[in-house]
Design brief:
Helices cover about 55% and strands about 10% of the residues. Among the domains are: about 90 residues; about 110 residues, Immunoglobulins (Immunoglobulin-like), CATH 2.60.40.10. With about 525 residues, it is an alpha+beta fold. The longest helix has about 35 residues.
């Protein structure tokens, strides 16, 4: 009998070896341990059930999250990344629980120990989350401090430029300070805002510290608007810091302009009396204006009386407007009204000195207008009569400049008889000046006519020679000396005035004749 004595018996087969260990009986505790271990983010539950690839997938997901999250910054982790990672952890926990339900754990650890370990390991992501939150909060604090520092640099740089140029930078910095104080209270940056605001105020208002009062007005006015948006607790006493300084600046700037003749002094004083009517600087406005009027009054008797008169008239007008704007400061308004009236009266009276100065300078046209204005404005003026004489003398000197060599006086009368006749159909005003100055009007001569210009050029031409005609006339008594006559048509005639220079001597009787000439249909 042949064959393998040790071979299988005829009719008997050996079963094949199994491909994997047989599944373990379902164990909920084991499934929970695997699921909780996977929640740590490291896939440790998969390690216990020998699912190496899925464990590696957990590591990749966790590494990706760390790549996105670190280093911690103020913006934190993007919400989409957190949501995606949470889904991954949830899927890993569910999948791990399914895998661990019927799979024996590797190693000596049993399900209870694995579950205890899983619970302890949850402290890792929890601790990491707390650490990350602290790191993120620190990043937020640093970001806010960086914003604060940039605003500080902006204020420092703006302080090197005039306020008008730097205004926008100051506003930008203020917006940062306000945002830190209002939107991030309790932050380290917000805690530093009160100190920064003190620096801000002193920088913006630096012109006041340099006693550049006119330049200080605009920035100090701006600082008074800051409390509208900044919490009061951040400002404290700074909210009232600009007030006294602005009041002082308005007064000093207005006072300097009043002295120098600048145009904006009244506006400065007006702002002061309106904004700070009860302040000490406001109480100084009326005396300062009064002193300026007194200086101008003294100038009337100085080297340039016309400039002083112009100054007084300007002061009167501006002070009147200022008094109207000072409704909140009744005492100042009353004092200013009185000063304005005095300035106006002094200006009117000063026209006499101005007219004299103009006459002596040879500006006869201006002198005539000024003296006529003085006569109209000063009905009871002490120099009224002489002003009338000077106005006449200036008008004569406009035609005969030699008549302006001496200032007319109020003298009258003389020993020489001068008869002035009118051989013209028009009324004629006769002006004369010399040792005596005056004027009068002669009525037109009835029946008289204008002479042809050609006839006046003939030898022997004698107007006023018709012995049978009664010429309107007037006889003057004048002193010896040179008298200058100007005859001008009365009313609105545009004819050129005629003139004559009479050198009067004792023992003679003189006659002046006024007449008109006709040329090409026009009378002269």
């Amino acid at each position: 009998m042949s064959g393998d004595p040790y071979g299988p018996e005829p009719g008997f087969a050996v079963p094949p070896m199994p491909q994997a260990p047989p599944p373990a009986p379902p164990d909920g505790l084991r499934a929970t341990a695997v699921a909780v271990l996977n929640l740590s983010g490291l896939g440790l539950g998969y390690a216990l059930v020998r699912r190496w690839l899925t464990m590696a997938g957990c590591w990749v997901a966790t590494a990706a999250l760390l790549f996105v999250a670190l280093p911690a910054d103020a913006d934190g982790v993007p919400g989409a990344a957190l949501a995606l990672y949470g889904v991954v952890l949830l899927l890993a926990a569910v999948h791990g629980a399914v895998a661990g339900l019927r799979t024996r754990l590797t190693g000596p650890a049993g399900a209870p120990l694995a579950l205890l370990l899983a619970v302890l390991l949850l402290a890792v992501p929890a601790g990491g989350a707390l650490w990350y939150q602290d790191a993120r909060e620190e990043a937020v604090q640093q970001a806010l401090l960086d914003r604060l520092e940039r605003a500080d640099h902006l204020v420092t740089a703006a302080g090197r430029h005039p306020f008008a140029t730097a205004r926008s930078d100051y506003r930008t910095a203020l917006d940062v300070y306000r945002d830190l104080a209002v939107e991030h209270p309790g932050s380290r940056a917000a805690d530093q805002v009160p100190d920064r605001m003190r620096t801000y105020y002193t920088t913006v208002g630096a012109a006041y510290g340099h006693q550049d009062y006119c330049a200080a007005v605009e920035p100090l006015t701006y600082l008074r608007t800051v409390p509208r948006g900044m919490p009061e607790r951040q400002l404290g006493s700074l909210a009232r810091w600009p007030d006294g300084r602005l009041a002082t600046s308005l007064f000093e700037c207005g006072s300097a302009g009043l002295t120098s003749g600048a145009q904006d002094w009244a506006a400065r004083f007006g702002d002061l009396l309106t904004t700070f009517p009860r302040s000490a600087p406001a109480a100084r406005v009326a005396p300062a204006v009064d002193a300026a009027v007194r200086r101008a009054e003294k100038g009337v008797h100085g080297g340039d009386p016309c400039a002083a008169v112009e100054r007084l008239n300007s002061l009167s007008s501006r002070i009147t407007d200022l008094a109207r704007s000072a409704a909140g400061a009744a005492d100042a308004a009353d004092a200013l009204d009185g000063t304005a009236g005095r300035a106006g009266r002094s200006g009117n009276a000063g026209q006499y000195s101005c007219g004299v100065d103009q006459f002596e300078d040879g500006d006869f046209d201006a002198a005539q207008k000024t003296m006529e204005s003085y006569v109209d404005d000063n009905e009871h003026g002490g120099n009224l009569e002489r002003a009338k004489k000077i106005a006449i003398g200036a008008e004569v000197a406009r035609t005969l400049p030699a008549a302006g060599k001496r200032l007319p006086t109020t003298a009258s009368g003389g020993s020489i008889s001068v008869t002035v006749k009118n051989d013209s159909p028009d009324d004629v005003t006769v002006l004369y000046t010399g040792p005596v100055t005056g004027s009068f009007t002669l009525k037109g001569c009835g029946g008289c006519k204008a002479y042809p210009l050609s006839s006046t050029l003939l030898t022997g031409f004698k107007p006023c020679a018709d012995s049978g005609r009664h010429y309107p006339q007037r006889t003057l008594s004048l002193p010896v000396g040179t008298t200058y006559f100007v005859h001008k048509p009365h009313g609105g005639s545009t004819a050129t005035p005629a003139s004559d220079t009479a050198r009067l001597r004792s023992g003679y009787v003189y006659t002046e004749c006024a007449y008109t000439t006709r040329s090409l249909g026009s009378a002269h």
